[in-house]
Amino acid sequence: MSIQYETGETGLRAVLKDYQEHALRIIWASKEPLNSRQVWQKVNEKLHPETISRASIINFLDAVRESGVLKGEEVTGKGGHHWMYTPAMNEAEYKQYIAKTLVEHLLKYFPEETKQALHSIK
Prior knowledge:
With 122 residues, the protein is an alpha+beta fold. The protein has helices spanning 18-29, 36-47, 54-66, 91-109, 111-120; strands at residues 34-35, 70-77, 80-87.
């Protein structure tokens, strides 16, 4: 999953859409694994009266699972196979992952400028 950083936003909204932040917070707060339907329902409760499609939730959950932010266990149930999601990273670890990924990318493509900028920060 690529990270896009919006400098006009703050906190997790700088890298996540509102429904994505809600989805992660719902999973972080849950004591039990959740499937995409459960996450989708809870996100739509938070967004009310707005809504987000279940496909958007499924695509986001799969992307963050593949990037290691969430863990997923594929189970067979009513209607076939589905994923049960749990956190692989807590919020602080996720923020560190974002910072590390962005800095590594900057160092790869703008090495000298990034080192100079980092040294100038007090």
